[in-house]
Amino acid sequence: MASQEQLERLLASSQEHNGCQSWKQWRREGDWRTQIDLRGAHLNGINLRGAHLRNADLREAHINSADLTGANLRDAHLMNAYLNNTDLTYADLTHADLTGADLTSAHLGGVVLSGAVLSSADLRRTDLRRACLIVAELTGADLDDADLRHANLRGVRFRDACLRGADLIGADLTYADLTAADLTGAHLGGAVLREAHLTRALLTNADLSDVDLAGGDLAGAVLSGVVLRRTNLQACQLQGVQFSSLEFGEPIWPEMEAAAWEALQDEARSPATPADRLVELTTYWPGYQVRQLLVANPNLPQEQAITLAPLFPRAFLSNPVLPLWFMEDPNWFPPGVAQAVLERARQEPDWPALATQYAAVALLERCAADG
Fold first, then answer.
1. Sign of CA dihedral 230, 231, 232, 238
2. How far apart are CA 217 and CA 316, in angstroms?
3. What CA–CA distances, in Å, run from 199 to 132, 169, 179, 255?
4. Integer Cα distance of 139 and 157 in angstroms
5. Residue 122 and residue 106 in contact, taking contact as beta carbons nearer than 8 Å
6. pLDDT beyond 80 at 337
7. Is the previous residue joined to 271 through a cis bond, with omega within 30 degrees of 0?
8. What's the CA dihedral at 222, 224, 227, 233 to 10 degrees?
9. Over the Cα atoms of the chain, what is R_g?
10. Nearest to 124 by CA among 103, 107, 110
């Protein structure tokens, strides 16, 4: 229960429209050990610009749509507080505890949250542009559609957090822990994630253009449909990473030792490689790099061959098993995909010779025409 005396004093000061000067004076002149108890207080919509609320107990307080611009909330206790649509621009929340707080659509541009705890907090659609959250704790937090452009997120723990559709363009996530985080559809263009942990992270359809992930750990992450244009993956841990349908260009891949690279290519080419292993190589590191060899392997299953054919038409057409597949089932290949393969193949400078070199060309033309 909030202290009625303190609550009345704060409410009266909020009406002065001078940055809560009388409240600040009372705090300065009083016993510094006095605990500010505003638990469960109703402060919706009030003006607390620049208010001195350091170490205040605001657990479960209702502060929706309030103005806390530039307020001092260092070490404040805001567990399960309601701060929906509240303006906390440039406020100081260093080491504050906001566990389970509702900050939906709050304005936190330029806020300082270094060392703060926001575990399981609701930060959907929150504006955190250029905010400082160094080593903050956001395990299990919901940041769907949040704006974190150019925020300082070094060392932040985002374990199991939801960042679907979040905007992290230009953010600094060096050493950040994003283990098992959901970044589906997130925008990270130009962000820095050097030595970040993204183990088992979900990055489906995320944009990682120009992102620096050097030294990061992406083991077991899902990168289906992700944009990796000029993404720096050097020295990354990519064991078990699932790549599929990469969009718009290739990343800077980690370097492989010459012997390992040769062995990988030999495995991709060999008809003796088991079909299930070839399937695994089509989507997982490091096999993703040799897909043009895999699509030419006669032991690759039809499903994967159909997927890779438009990407590597020349290699696909060279696969010696194609005539046999058409003989067994003339309709196994989708007409629309056949048209896409032929369109790509016709862009090759030696297309006339290519058309006569491979018997599969005529088979694909017939397939496309039937569609």
1. negative
2. 33
3. 24, 21, 5, 20
4. 6
5. no
6. yes
7. no
8. 40
9. 28
10. 103
| pLDDT band of 73, cuts 50, 70, 90 | very high
State how far the Cα of 164 lies from the Cα of 211, in Å rounded to an integer: 17
Range name among 14-28, 125-139, 331-345 with the lowest pLDDT average: 14-28
Task: Report CA-CA distances (Å) from 237 to 217, 249, 355.
Answer: 5, 21, 42
- Cα angle value 189/156/173 (rounded, 5°): 25
d(CA 343, CA 210): 30
Residue 112, beta-bridge partner list: 92, 132
Torsion of CA 83, 87, 92, 93, to 10 degrees: 20
C-beta of residue 360 within 8 angstroms of C-beta of residue 319: yes
The closest of 78, 42, 80, 93 to 63, measured between CA atoms, is 42
Q: DSSP assignment of 157-203, as one string?
A: B-TT-B-TT-B-TT-B-TT-B-TT-B-TT-B-TT-B-TT-B-TT-B-
357: closest CA among 303, 313, 327, 307? Answer: 313
Token pair listed for 66: 């309030």
Whether residue 248 is predicted with pLDDT greater than 60 in this model: the reply is no
- Give the other-Cβ count within 10 Å of 329's Cβ: 9
Indicate left, alpha or beta for 80 from its phi (over 0: left) and psi (-120 to 50: alpha). left
Between CA 95 and CA 296 the distance in angstroms is: 57
DSSP track, 118-148: -TT-B-TT-B-TT-B-TT-B-TT-B-TT-B-
More confident residue, 245 or 214: 214
Quickly state the pLDDT bin for 16 (edges 50, 70, 90): confident
Residue 154 phi/psi, 5° resolution?
Answer: -65, 125
Tokens, residue 303? 């499903």
Averaged pLDDT, 160-164: 98
Residue type for position 295: V
What pLDDT shows up at residue 356? Answer: 83
The amino acid present at 33, given as its one-letter code, is: R
What are the tokens at 173?
A: 């996530």
